[in-house]
Amino acid sequence: MNETTWKTAITQVRPNEVRLRGYRIDELMGNVTFGQAIFLALKGELPPAGAARLIEAMLVSSIDHGATPPSALAARTAASTGASLNAALAAGILSINRFHGGAIYDCMSILQSGIDRATETGKSLEAVAAELVDEYQASNRRMAGLGHRIHTADPRTARLFSLAEETQVAGQGVEMIRTLQQAFEAAGKRLPINVDGAIAALLIDLQMPHDLANAFFIMARVPGLVAQVSEEMARERPMRAIHPTDHEYDGPAPRELPPGTTAPPNR
Amino acid sequence: MNETTWKTAITQVRPNEVRLRGYRIDELMGNVTFGQAIFLALKGELPPAGAARLIEAMLVSSIDHGATPPSALAARTAASTGASLNAALAAGILSINRFHGGAIYDCMSILQSGIDRATETGKSLEAVAAELVDEYQASNRRMAGLGHRIHTADPRTARLFSLAEETQVAGQGVEMIRTLQQAFEAAGKRLPINVDGAIAALLIDLQMPHDLANAFFIMARVPGLVAQVSEEMARERPMRAIHPTDHEYDGPAPRELPPGTTAPPNR
Amino acid sequence: MNETTWKTAITQVRPNEVRLRGYRIDELMGNVTFGQAIFLALKGELPPAGAARLIEAMLVSSIDHGATPPSALAARTAASTGASLNAALAAGILSINRFHGGAIYDCMSILQSGIDRATETGKSLEAVAAELVDEYQASNRRMAGLGHRIHTADPRTARLFSLAEETQVAGQGVEMIRTLQQAFEAAGKRLPINVDGAIAALLIDLQMPHDLANAFFIMARVPGLVAQVSEEMARERPMRAIHPTDHEYDGPAPRELPPGTTAPPNR
Amino acid sequence: MNETTWKTAITQVRPNEVRLRGYRIDELMGNVTFGQAIFLALKGELPPAGAARLIEAMLVSSIDHGATPPSALAARTAASTGASLNAALAAGILSINRFHGGAIYDCMSILQSGIDRATETGKSLEAVAAELVDEYQASNRRMAGLGHRIHTADPRTARLFSLAEETQVAGQGVEMIRTLQQAFEAAGKRLPINVDGAIAALLIDLQMPHDLANAFFIMARVPGLVAQVSEEMARERPMRAIHPTDHEYDGPAPRELPPGTTAPPNR
């Protein structure tokens, strides 16, 4: 078999020089946040000026959601049999798919198709939203990004949208999902925009490729999975039967951020 | 089998309220960086004031090292057979072990044992470093964290150590590894402190649990693996024979950070 | 969340009694082959009388295909970084997808659709095969199950088909793929039926659910992956660059089966 | 980096010829069972004449143990989020480690060390067994391979040992574990030899490399995991909370093997 040389456009490694998408890594370090570097690695370009604070917040929003999600349970199950930390993480990541984490992807599809329909038909987003809500209700489908099993108002969504406005990232994605929420309300159904819906809207406004929706969730959730695995290893005996919901929180009591922390990151 | 209720100290989920280690997630969002939130998720406490910029830089330093590392190759190999993005990532993470990524853990062990030996014996770090270098040279072992296959001066190390001084995080970890480097030089061997060694020193100075060394590398590298997998899917045909080193960089030419970017993150 | 009791129809475990699909496991042991038990676990019923020898042969046919397939390379890559055996196997299995192993599934779809078309239209398999070959050639598509990169006559196919006749399993599946091969030849293209195509035909004739095509290949290949990983650990140094094709066979020279072995398994 | 050609001693692929450890694959097919081929792939040689029936029984014994083991739960959890079958299997395999499946390895170590101690000291196996039981009881450790959470007499063990005698495989491994069981009984503790202990004894008597103990269990269990994943996909809704023990068997009622099946495989 004759193999030709292949190409990569991500990282260039030369003696004493590492460049990510053309920028020296040691220059990126200290000058951009991890979130900005993630954006650069994936999109090939740095995010718009001022968007860093929003991107950090998007990643923080999804860092963990407790021990109940299947990714946490699968990772804990593997850890409980004696798996190494990376193997337990792999089991967790293998449990992030269409039905867990996948709402971001599905919601991006809906929002983009709504925006495209408005552009193509000349209709307003309101008119398109009303149509979409009709279509979903007629076929009795849930719309990804709206509704939550536990939260009636997802606290992460309000925060993300206010940061999206401050940082001037909010665009058609945010507008479309808000219009859909209003259309549901007009049709008699109060549904919160959940954190997946908010992230979907923002990934559209940041022009992140659709295919990376699931990856975004995974990158945000890996640290939470590390914490879950690490806690399983530290606190529990091997081979216990892990009941998926019968757990209680016994960590630090509710507390306020220390004063200095509340000043925002500057970009 | 009788299952008792179990406990978790990471995240508390209540209707319309999500708290990570006691802090409201919507308050963390916009006020801390992703790196600070990672530190909080893992350690249970926010990092020291001012350390955020360093932590971000540590994560950025390891985000990608091109297509040659085995984690990138395993992830690309899986992707090339038609694996979904999360499955390809899992294959990559399963390839981050003792011999790839593990240098951080091994170096932390050496540094900590050096520091402990100095404390216990009352010897200076210099004296202990000389002993350790003797021991490694006598048994003809490489010391993790020192030396690099490609770089004679790892550009990421200099940057990390200068940020560690600016942010006042640098402590005994940094001192110990620098002293070891000098002891090798005194013994006739010039070895750069590589990025794994620098991170190991800083994780000690940040009092990160030893067990999380490998996790730190994984969290930093996942976005790079996403970029590698995503590029494989976009640019290459399925089932190609992936030669591990015969690739060329064809991405953006060397470039400077845009002016506004060079102001540092403020914490 | 209210969880109702759930059901499973596979295995029943009671004190001193384990039953697989209703049969005592200790009665299955010694009376059926592993292949028969696999069939029972998956289908819920034992295979037809006499089919054991064929099923064993199907599993043996795919046990290994050398170090070149991506599943072997991904597993070796993980092992080379220090992964445990099960983690390296997982990386290998994550590399068995549509483009590696998937030909069985794709070929089953083609064969079944050909058989169905003949039934629905009242046409002969020959007529349908000619149509299908026309359609594939018109759209310039390869037909899964036919053709091989290395073999002009796949030795495994001839053997499987002769066993399928001996054991009276051969039916419409085998007939359909042979007819397709003849139709290609009539259209000027000599293509061998490859081992994936032969297995696809036999899985149809054994009425194995379509969804288990990929699983069948994985079950057969896991022992080969174990051998590959185990050899990597025993013979190679960590973190070597694993060139995908530049390897040589240095195992036992060609040899004949010992006399006693050539009598066939009796069922 | 200069890569030298590497070697493999497992499979040789040439045009129209595939050889496993020197034997033509198409000659193995139909003449050896899958279990014999597994043995050949792993050990490099065919098993002793007559051992096939035992090896098949060993693999059948561990094919499934219901929905409760962590490997089944992790695989079902991944499947429940929408994972593909191979990804769900990988999650299951990542949950087979020291504390699940690992008893075979641990028991092999104990048996081998007992046999070696007898050889080195000239003591009888009985004397050594009494010492080992003393040591374990003094340090309050469980001995892998003895005792079971559910079974007071593991039905699989009796069957394996009777087949091991019929096939003349039973040797020092079987003798050692039986002697240990008797020593425990003499010390006032009735413990059944569980299936892992029985397999450990037989792997020693078959001279299987110690490192492959976990692999043996994985190869046997993969079909069971396929059945579990496949059932999860067919019967359950996505993202259900999977209670680890609250399930009921609703498969075929207890039944006898059909008459023809009870004749043993002939080798």
List the helices and strands and how they pair.
Four copies of one chain form a homotetramer.
Chain A: E1 6-8, E2 11-14, E3 17-20, E4 23-24, H1 25-28, H2 34-43, H3 52-61, H4 70-80, H5 85-93, H6 103-121, H7 125-138, H8 155-166, H9 172-186, H10 195-205, H11 213-235, E5 247-249
Antiparallel strand pairs in A: 2-3, 3-4
Helix pairs in contact in A: 2-3, 3-8, 3-11, 4-5, 4-11, 5-11, 6-7, 6-9, 6-10, 7-9, 8-10, 9-10
Quick structural summary:
The model of chain A has no long low-confidence stretch (mean pLDDT 94). The termini of chain A are far apart. The longest helix of chain A has 23 residues, at 213-235.
How would you describe the overall organization of this protein?
- The structure is a homotetramer of 267-residue chains.
- Chain A is mainly alpha-helical and 267 residues long.
- Helix content of chain A is 52%, strand content 6%.
- The first copy, chain A, has 11 helices and 5 strands, in the order ββββαααααααααααβ.
- A 3-stranded antiparallel beta sheet of chain A has the order 2-3-4.
- In chain A, a hairpin with a 2-residue loop joins strand 2 (11-14) and strand 3 (17-20).
- In chain A, helix 3 (52-61) runs antiparallel to helix 8 and helix 4 packs across helix 11 (213-235).
- Chain A is globular, with a radius of gyration of 21 Å.
- The model of chain A has no long low-confidence stretch (mean pLDDT 94).
- Chains in contact: A-B, A-C, A-D, B-C, B-D, C-D.
- Strand 5 (247-249) of chain C pairs parallel with strand 1 (6-8) of chain D, so a sheet runs across the interface.
